[in-house]
Design a protein that fits this description.
Layout lengths: L6 H12 L1 E6 L3 H4 L1 E2 L2 E2 L9 H10 L3 E7 L6 H13 L10 E3 L10 H7 L6 E4 L6 H10 L3 E4 L7 H14 L3 E3 L7 H10 L5 E11 L1 H5 L10 H16 L4 E11 L17 E10 L4 E12 L7 E8 L2 E6 L6 E4 L3 E4 L21 H18 L4 H5 L9 H15 L5 E5 L5 E4 L1
Parallel strand pairs: 1-4, 1-6, 4-5, 6-7, 7-8, 9-12
Antiparallel strand pairs: 2-3, 9-13, 10-11, 10-17, 11-12, 13-14, 15-16, 17-18
Helix pairs in contact: 3-11, 6-7, 10-13
Length: 432
């Protein structure tokens, strides 16, 4: 900038340069809390992504927000939902969004291109859409110079993961996977302890959601993805993050249970798994063996929590057990019955001043970390390799994709064990 540039103009330009526009791809439960023409019945009744981005706009990090779906006729109801359940509830929280496609367009699967084309390089895009669409949307955004936050799994194959990684580094943009459990204070503290316990021996995780989610996800459940990609991805990433530089996975065997998802009233495609377990062999740097068992299900009965989620890790000199679903906080009402509450994830209660007050929840923190990192990268204050060490970037989550794809391959091959191969530098190379 010119030293003769007026100070007020310089300040305005700096604010414009470092505030980013945001495009939210996906209009469903996790973004808006709205699905199947009504408010979600889950614990995310007003969503996560949209709410957090509206708050980040109020705080000055974000400018304009656009919302992208494939069916524009849904938007009038979505706007009413956002107005009633966010704008009218929280002080100063503007839910104004530009929507794509137009309200009279019932089917436009590539409307994300029009929305992204209206952004500028260095703006941000979030991708919370069905798993089989992540690759195309993320690739398009990267090639347009956008920073991208993509839900887990970022893609379904190792080959696609590598392609996006190469593109992100070529265009010098941040692509972060929304692995919010890394910001859970218990899980974060557990990582430090686990890495001090010596060689890895055993890891077991379980995560489930109630059968009603088969209705929520009926557009893709068993068609374009499965419960392992959807839920096992959380604890696979967590375990791989814990073991970073200590141990590596070398083989995966998939196990399945079936019967509920394909039956009435869900009627998922034949072969849709109810529960998937991935049995995985790990090898420590010392060449000693360990193993992990990751299980995910979407046929749980209605319980005191929406998602059961817990893990047990044992290493040579210590062990950790964390039940993320139960924090010692229960509430009971005539309308809702008994519930175990977890405000450490998302706290929806407004603060004393009426503003959103969930800034310490790990659901919010992961989104805030992405926006702040993208801002810092735009300013030149940080590099991509530095972010690889700090955030769940494409580079730091590649083993999770490899394990998930190996599990899918194993299931499709009738339970055959799939091997993970590494190159001479120790980087994951292929599956066999």
């Amino acid at each position: 900038f010119s030293p003769k540039e007026p100070l007020d103009r310089l300040r305005s330009r700096r604010k414009r340069d470092y505030q980013m526009d945001c495009c939210l791809c996906g209009t469903g439960e996790y973004t808006t809390g709205f699905c199947h023409d009504a408010q979600s019945k889950s614990d995310k009744k007003i969503g996560v992504v949209g709410l957090c981005m509206f708050e980040l706009r109020r705080l000055g990090f974000i400018k304009e927000i656009s919302l992208v779906g494939t069916n524009g006729t849904k938007f009038p109801a979505i706007r009413q939902h956002l107005q009633k359940n966010i704008t009218d509830v929280y002080a100063g929280l503007d839910t104004t969004v530009r929507t794509f496609p137009a309200d009279d367009e019932p089917r436009a699967p590539e409307s994300y291109k029009e929305a992204i084309d209206k952004l500028s390089k260095g703006d941000v895009v979030t991708v919370f859409t069905p798993d089989d669409t992540h690759f195309a949307i993320t690739k398009y955004a990267i090639e347009k110079g956008m920073h991208v936050l993509v839900t887990k799994p970022p893609v379904k194959t190792l080959a696609e993961h590598k392609e996006l990684l190469q593109l992100a580094e070529k265009h010098n943009v941040l692509v972060m996977v929304e692995m919010h459990k890394r910001w859970d204070p218990c899980y974060l503290d557990g990582r430090a302890k686990a890495r001090a316990y010596g060689d890895f021996s055993f890891f077991q995780s379980f995560m489930s959601q109630p059968k009603l989610q088969l209705e929520t996800f009926k557009a893709w459940a068993g068609k374009s993805s499965d419960i392992s990609y959807y839920l096992n991805s959380h604890h696979i990433d967590l375990h791989a993050w814990y073991m970073q530089g200590i141990a590596k996975p070398t083989s995966v065997t998939g196990l399945a249970a079936t019967g509920v998802a394909v039956s009435e009233p869900y009627n998922c495609p034949e072969g849709t798994e109810d529960t998937i377990t991935l049995a995985t062999t790990w090898v420590n740097n010392s060449k000693r063996l360990g193993h992990a068992v990751y299980t995910a299900s979407w046929i749980a009965p209605k319980a005191d929590v929406h998602s059961q989620q817990r893990f047990h890790l044992m290493s040579h000199s210590g062990e950790i057990v964390i039940d993320q679903a139960h924090r010692g906080y229960t509430a009971c009402s005539d309308a809702g019955g008994l519930a175990s509450v977890n405000p450490l994830y998302m706290s929806y209660a407004p603060g004393p001043d009426g503003h959103f007050a969930g800034h310490r929840g790990y659901g919010y923190l992961s989104l805030e970390a992405f926006v702040k990192a993208a801002t810092a990268l735009n300013k030149g204050e940080v590099t991509l390799p530095q972010l690889d060490d700090r955030l769940p970037t494409l580079r730091s989550t590649i083993l999770s994709t490899a394990i998930l794809e190996a599990g899918r391959r194993s299931l499709d091959a009738g339970g055959k064990t799939v091997l993970l191969r590494y190159d001479e530098h120790g980087d994951i190379q292929s599956l066999e």
